[in-house]
Recover the amino acids of this structure.
């Protein structure tokens, strides 16, 4: 056989072999498979605003939010908004996300008009007085099949501080994952959807209640972030970290985040309080300094703007997160606080620094930041 024919046959054999291998991999279930080549990830650090809480299925809430977006759209120092929604806002009957898609499309279209971006989170639990124990109408917050299904269920937090879907159990986490997968399939390619957010790591529930343990919860969180990164390859995926004991569990989540190119950062910036997640991120606990390696999100809410955590100025909060955490994203509670109103204290400060944050692409995915 001529040399050219040998090479041609060899090439065809290689192509056939690769095709067979590809088909075999496609046919085999690979729920945790992640490409070894990371996709480019959207990277638009800056200052974002947390939209007022409310049931986005309500036309009144939608109208209020869209008006907020319209006002922020004219503010050049604000990059976008964070929207935290109830699970029941996005899913009706099991696997039916049509209502959620219709609502989110409105928000994204309004943001797109101004070139603003969306951080989107689905709340697995609600805290405080929104639901006093398990006696309220839980279907306000979760799909009825989650509330009533024998494989799922809702648990009460300690001292009636809130209620939470049992995402530490595989069946419930499977449905939470399915929701984020459906959202990713629709919105990952949208340039105006910047980041997806999961519930904060702290859950105030006693070990053993409805099968809860910190280790089982951490195991399910790891499953979530693997699936979320696969479903959102071009979008920031945020670990909303504040507390999870022992330290080894939180450190384990951070190590996984390096592999998955996650962003990290929990609620509240409190200059005079030590937060476990912050200490681990900066290397005080564990000895690994993740600053500059992974993005940090500083979320500033009302308790530190004149609430129970203290009265700090916008400059103090900004400087604390920038100095200690090298924060790239800031999320501000727009209502401000008693001593730090948004319009007269917070926004003027953001304008004074021209919306600057740490904009360096993290080294864990350097040269893979989508900035356009």
């Amino acid at each position: 056989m001529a040399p050219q024919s040998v090479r041609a046959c060899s090439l065809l054999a290689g192509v056939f072999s690769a095709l067979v291998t590809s088909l075999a991999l496609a046919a085999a279930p690979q729920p945790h498979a992640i490409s070894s080549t990371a996709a480019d990830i959207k990277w638009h650090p800056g200052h974002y605003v947390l939209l007022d809480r409310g049931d986005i299925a309500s036309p009144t809430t939608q109208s209020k939010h869209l008006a907020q977006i319209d006002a922020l759209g004219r503010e050049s120092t604000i990059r976008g908004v964070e929207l935290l929604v109830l699970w029941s806002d996005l899913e009706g009957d099991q696997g039916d996300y049509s209502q959620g898609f219709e609502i989110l499309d409105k928000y994204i279209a309004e943001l797109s008009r101004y070139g603003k971006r969306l951080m989107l989170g689905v709340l697995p639990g609600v805290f405080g007085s929104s639901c006093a124990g398990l006696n309220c109408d839980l279907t306000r917050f979760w799909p009825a099949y989650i509330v009533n299904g024998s494989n799922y269920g809702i648990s009460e937090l300690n001292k009636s501080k809130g209620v939470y879907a049992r995402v530490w159990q595989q069946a419930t986490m499977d449905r939470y994952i399915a929701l984020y997968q459906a959202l990713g399939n629709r919105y990952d390619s949208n340039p105006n959807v910047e980041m997806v957010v999961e519930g904060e790591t702290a859950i105030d529930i006693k070990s053993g209640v409805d099968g809860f343990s910190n280790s089982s919860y951490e195991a399910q969180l790891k499953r979530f972030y693997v699936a979320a990164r696969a479903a959102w390859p071009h979008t920031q995926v945020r670990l909303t970290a504040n507390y999870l004991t022992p330290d080894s569990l939180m450190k384990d989540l951070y190590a996984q985040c390096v592999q998955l190119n996650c962003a990290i950062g929990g609620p509240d910036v409190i200059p005079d309080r030590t937060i476990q997640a912050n200490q681990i991120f900066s290397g005080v606990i564990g000895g690994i300094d993740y600053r500059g390696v992974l993005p940090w999100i500083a979320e500033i809410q009302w308790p530190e703007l004149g609430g129970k955590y203290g009265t700090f100025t916008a400059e103090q909060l900004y400087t604390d997160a920038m100095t200690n955490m090298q924060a790239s994203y800031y999320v501000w509670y727009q209502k401000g606080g008693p001593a730090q109103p948004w319009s007269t204290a917070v926004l003027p400060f953001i304008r004074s620094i021209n919306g600057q944050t740490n904009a360096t692409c993290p080294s864990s995915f350097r040269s893979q930041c989508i900035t356009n």
Remarks:
- The longest helix spans residues 3-27.
- Residues 1-37 have pLDDT under 50 and may be disordered.
- The first strand starts at residue 41 and ends at 42.
